[in-house]
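To whoever is covering the structure queue this week,

Two jobs came back overnight. Logging them here so there's a record in the thread.

Job A:
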Amino acid sequence: QPSPSSPHPDHPGDRTSLAQSTMGRGGENALLKNNNPGDRINNSIKVNENNNAVDGEKAKEILMGPLARKLRARFPDWYALADEFTLYHQNSFNVFLHMVTTPAGIWAALALITKAAHTLDAKTLNSPNSVPFVLIMLYNAILKQKLPKDLWVMNSMVMFALGTAAAVAQAEYSFLALGVTLAVSYFGQDVAHWLTGEKTYDSTYMTADARAANGSASSSFASKFMEHTVYLMPLVLHSAYHCPEPILLSWMVPRNYVVFAKLTSTDEKSHLKRIRDWALAQNPRLDATTHWWFERPNGAQVGVENQGYEVSPEVKESFEEIMKGDTVMGMFTKRFDMTSYEIAQVRGMNELYVAGPPLTNNSDKVFESSHVDGPYRIFPFCYLFRCMLATTGNTQIRTNFNFVTTYPENTTKYTLADGDVVGFDFNREIHYIDNDPDPKRVNKDPRVNLKLHYVVYPKCMRPFGKLLAFLTTRYNVNARNLFLNTIRPKTWRHKFNAKYVVLWTTEAVYRIEQFASWSNVAYVALASLLPRLLLGASSSYPCFVALTSFVHYIMYISVYYLRDDVSYGSFKRDVMFFKVIAYCHLVSQFASAVMANVATTGHPVLSYAMMAVGYGLASSAAMALGVDRTYFGSELGHYPPKWITAFPYSLKIPHPMIVGGIIGLSGFQIYAPFRVAIPWLIPAHIAFYMLHMLQEHFDIIAPKSRGIGKTAASAAVTGEKKVA
């Protein structure tokens, strides 16, 4: 488990500077406002900050630490080029693909050179494998005075590694194969830009007009192309470090996808009034809920008492204006980078409803229980949002999100009224409604609400986004048909569905999502099945172990590094789930080894002792901190810093949870029959533990992170949105 040992604000020995944590580590990086990629201050971009135009150069000067300013003064040409390049490499997936294609292309080029050297006469060239290394040494020497030291060292290490790989592998590949690899890598970079919707850097200097538009009129195409080629690898490394969403790490962070806004403009209020007045003029029953479609999809039933019809053309017009309005759309443009994502309306799910008090056994009770609305969770990076928009006053009914935790409560609560709108992932977000306990806040009038729906997906995954919208719409139609038949159940079948099918199914789906997550279950299933299909049953288990044993470590490292806008409940659930999976592997393998050898070697007493001491120490540290502080509750801003003096922190043991975990793992490793079965398993566990311990010890967090107590989740003391 992650150990908030020194430096950590929850126990003695903390050396963390809150100022440093808040501003990062003094680097020249982007500033995220509300984690909005559209508000980035990055390089020479001009952005809006507090609705004022801010020049990127001035913003950089404000944000940069003294070291960064000194480096820029020493290497002005490099940083000018890097700033230009980074402007067109903001998308983490684009940068990730460049981290694959660029080294692959350089490797192929070096392998071609090495293979060509081998074809020369031995008298002409006695050491053909030395040719790429000579070129690499010359290349590194040229860049020595042109790059910052840390970047130069990293680039040199990468180049020598690629040279070694080229020398070793050149004999295994033909000239044709290496040439194809080089071509695929080169054009693969253009494909990466096309997939992510980012403009290519070379398009800014391909023509004289393009160079003039970008301030490079005095440069020729040849000089810019040569500069781009020579500096390509360090430019890619620089972009990877300065990417607004760090590659790989950002994909492992469970994000908070609950968004909120309020419609306040005169036009918006006018549209809300038109919708509200029309709904109430239909004389809806107040002892149940009444529903109207925005556009009734195929297959939707039309029930009794106005259930399931479409709204009037006038109301539909107001619906349209609200759906495409700046306020609602702004929730998504602030949360997602629109250079990478697309937003589309899902019109077949939109509806208007009037809510009355729930009956005892009808399906209104579903919403008072924790639940997830939809079943389609296995669409990575694609999200279907349901937005609940209130057109009337409301002081009683609260919408609660279980996993979007705020301090000191365990849920985020929204009492939606008069233009408040909250959006959440239809297929993933656990939520429920309840009543405000204050008897003075009981509603006297019916609530008139809208349900608006949008699908958000990466531009490169448009087919998956469209498929998600289609499948969710069909599911919603079927679920709505069932719901309409259970609002006022008359037949025994409808009563049975209302009391058992709807409620029990909802409860079962919710419990799996609460404790395991359908996405995690699907990942484990794929990690088990794919190796079986590709490698065969006899060879698949080590691959399955590798794919499922270290996920929780990567999530620790990623969340500790990034911190902002984390769905805290989801994070705790996911790391606990994968840690259980990891230890199931360890315990099952160890037990099998003991049972197979106990008759000849006896019980491994020393292993038992080390496990007891190690995991006893780790468990004591976790108990001293509590579950929430153990899982970064303080770092993520959900709890205030607190000094912990209880055992084992009283013994001044550094990082007692990690130290205890390593001792326990070593107990597994010293047992030879276990070690022989999967020799790399325990060293890999310990390596991840050590990596995370170093991260904690040196307080390595993202330069863009707002640090302790500065996350979106802790912005409000109670996390509750109330309208009096």
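Job B:
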Amino acid sequence: RVRIGHARIMSLSAVVQPVRIVSLRATAVAALRRGSKPTRVRAATRPTVPIAMASSTLAENPLASWSFGRKPSGEAPDLPKWSSITPEHVKPAIMAAVDKVNAEIDAIETSFTESTPEKWSDLMDPLERLSEELSRPWGVVSHLKGVRDSEALRAAYDECQPAVVTASLRVGQSRPVYDALVALTKNEAAWTSLTDAQKRAVECEVRDAQLSGVALDGAQKDRYNEIAKELSELSTKFSNNVLDATKAFAHTCFDASEVDGLPDSALEQAAQTAKTKGGHENATAADGPWMFTLDAPSYMAVRSHAKNRALREKVYRAYLARASEHFAPFVDDADAKAKFSKNGAGDNAPLIERILALREEKASLLGYDTFAEVSMAKKMATLDRAESLLEDIRAKARPAAERELEEIRAFAANAGAPEATSGLAQWDVGFWSERLREAKYELKEEDLRPYFQLPAVIDGMFELAGELFGIKVEAADGEVEVWHPDVRFFRVIDVATNQPRAYFYLDPYTRPSEKRGGAWMDDVVGRSSTMAPTTGAVRLPCAHMVCNGTPPVGDKPSLMTHNEVTTLFHEFGHALQHMLTTESCGPVAGINQVDWDAVELPSQFMENWCYDKKVLRKIGKHFETNEPLPDDLYEKLVASKNFGSGTRYLRQCHFAMTDLELHARYKPGAGTDAIFATERKIAEKTMIMPSIDEDRFLCGFGHIFAGGYSAGDYSYLW
């Protein structure tokens, strides 16, 4: 399982739990979430000043002094000072933003009570400016927590989170604001004067206020707010536990026989990990030692290529046990063992039970029968239509998946695999699937890597975007601060006007010590006329794209798998939707307020180009000779495109159907065992091979327990 791509959909009342658009690329037979590997550049050591020692003034605080893209600053755009922001800046900046939001919502309510606004500029413009005061700096902190995590930053984040949630609820539940919004929809003259975009913005704000509990009073409102705060805290804990478990695992091989079958690229990365994480300064790809982790490039290399069956089994079991009571045997540190034991601080199972119970209670307070209905209120689909689609796909995918597994078993038996006699285990299927693919299409993943060097892939991707959308992407490194030396910065130019249209960051490589797994897109600022700089008519959008791709090793550039190339194109699709919008109504510009089950359209549109011959010849250039991708490799790549597709679709149906079952019919209160029993029941229809007893995939399913995909994972197939 590979989860990629994301962007925060911001509503004026949606700061409580920033969520991200996450999109799907599945690999044959494998179940994983994209991870990370050691980077070639270490992050600079940052001061560990106690949070209480804040900057002397907010003006000197690089987080508090950011003006959200409104400040003219010459050629360079007004963007966060990423490298200057340290954990001690967080609390004073965020608490100042909270105080400002509370004061401004008080003033707005007084104004609206005295005189109901009838113009867009009197109603929505003040609300948009209000939302930016907290969502933007908190978005910066949330982003840094994902890409530059540290104990000090976690402490600052956790300390501020309750105040952020409280302020967000205060805005989202403002009755005078809600009444003014509803009044505008009923004022025929005022309503007909609005553009379609403005009408959409108002309608979304009315809906989001209702889902934020604006209609609740007294004890019900108090309870709703308590639930919102606790859910926010649980989401953070869930994510932290998954990251900590992924970081805690490492397995070192010292004998070359233990790493037989692994390609040179995997051995190079494993030796580099042994240096940076294991302290083996003399480790080499040829002689070892080699350290393997649960970061996706390392994990997938072992699953797909290691002849060492015991190694495959260990990493498979460890991956599925992350953040659960079964993870303790896979770590050596005593504190980690205690943390990842039953009901330990790192066990996500009790958190899942609590999250489901709170979501059910929240739905009841809002007048819904299930949390799935709450989720569907912001989507195109209904529960019935989503489940109908999933069952239709499942019914068609299962026979194909059964045939694929039988073909893999037969191939392993013909190859004389000892495990074929006793029956392939789950950790064998990925290995023999890859061998079958290689034999069937005469194509190895490593044959493609030399042609997919990141610099050439980026250049070709930008050239394609230019042909499709009339833009030119220029490197603008050094013009603004970045959060890590590997991060690139780019300017998007409109060819017709030769003027800037947007900006974006690209963070391409894994950094397991501080960066969470996955690949995602998010907005830094959005296009908005209301938030325009004093010298311009509109604020230009800015996005960041974060991947966990293979980093450079030695003098070699990053040599990517084709799947990593597809991931990059996918994220660029999300970013393009945000950056190329021509809508200047901020609340609905770019990625804002796109129906959740529609967000994958631009990303998957861009993925398709990764099999286009013309595009592949542009992005596929050998890193040593600069020769384009040969025709025979292209033909083999296209021929193998649908290999294992039955298994992939069936696996995605498992994720989505489990998600909907837990949020539509499961009744919390029976304990954590009941949760996993529910998943196993779904698996009877969605898995060909039974899961292992200690499978705790749900304990790492951050998309529905720590993100925005609860009762929405079906969006990948919608």
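Note for Job B: Residues 17 and 232 are 6 Å apart (CA to CA).

Please reply-all if you pick these up so we don't duplicate work.
Q.
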